[in-house]
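Bit of a strange request maybe. I'm writing a small parser for structure token strings and I need a real example to test against, not something I typed by hand. Could someone generate the tokens for this chain?
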Amino acid sequence: MDGLLAGPQGLLWALNARAVLAVLDARGQLARPELVAATGLSRTTVTQTVQALVGSGVIAEAGLDRTRRGPAAVLYRLVPDTAFGLAVHSAPDHVRVAVVDASGEVRARAGAEVAGMIDGEEARAALILELAADAVGAIEPGETGAAAPRLRRAVVGIDGIVGADGRTLRTVPGYAVGGTALHDALQAGLDCPVTIENDINLSALAEQCGTAVGDARTFAVLSLDSGFGAGLVIDGRLYRGAAGGAGEVAYLPQPGLRLGAESLGRRAIADLASAEGLPSGRPLSALLHDAAAGDGRARRVVAEVGRRLALSAASVALVLDPDLFVLTDLAADDLLVTAVTDFAATAAAELPMRFVPSALQGEGVLLGAIGQVHRQVRDDVFDAAVAADSAAGSPIAS
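Reply from user aminoacidic:
Good idea to test on real output. This should exercise your parser:
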């Protein structure tokens, strides 16, 4: 790498420092020989870069590796307490938060169930702030000696359409009131930058790091719970759409439904239950339980839900032609997976589709938020370390 780099010494230092930090972030504890091999930098450059980063407090010695041949080598690692971020999943019936350190480790969690719908974005922000304070307060002082961690960033997953700015919610009649009230209240209360993201988009990002998608580069995550939506990953990149509305599949046309009617979601499932003489307020989770127990009416509702889910997937497949569909949340229930895969088998000749259940056990949104906030916090730490050591005139190997 040294022979290819050109430009001011400050730029070389920044590139070298980021290379070392990125390898330690990805691989954990390493000695200098492994850093040389992983970065392509010279031994002298790695030695000087490591010394400067240790001096800035961003990395630290982590003991000796005595397993190798020859003299024991000093191991180095990132100092996790250099920065913290907050990951949030705010669902209609619960809120979960996690505090993440600079190494990506979850240091504390908190959560609360919600009885009924949260009354407005200010109330939702107040609950998130309360849980965030609980989680931060549960973290023991670490290597930096700080009495209480200070959050650097927050990523919040919600069941709404979020604009490209990561702040503005789009108005969805009957579901969400648009605007920046949630973002503004959280940013003021947390005193750090806040990014709002659609929940299923975060699930899709989490699935990229999971086991269900394997080597697939183009896939769709289908989530069914109180609502129905898709997260789209195209050629390895999350696709949000020009205004954040990509994946809003709940209103795709369906045979027998008027154009623009909700095909799947809270209202559609309530209508299906009523048509079978069941209470319209019974949630899908309860209907799935009843169907598994042998209730014929619930089984018919679940069968229709599975048919509509599969038809929606077929519409996506005609446009996107993904490698596979990942079924998550209640869509990953055994009965629905069976219904959808049975449909796919009947249509395989005309429209090949592959469905797999998520392996994330309903944690995809929070895991996606954890991954996103870790990347943001890590980048902040890298920026600060490079800026500080560049200002101090850190040595550069030529």
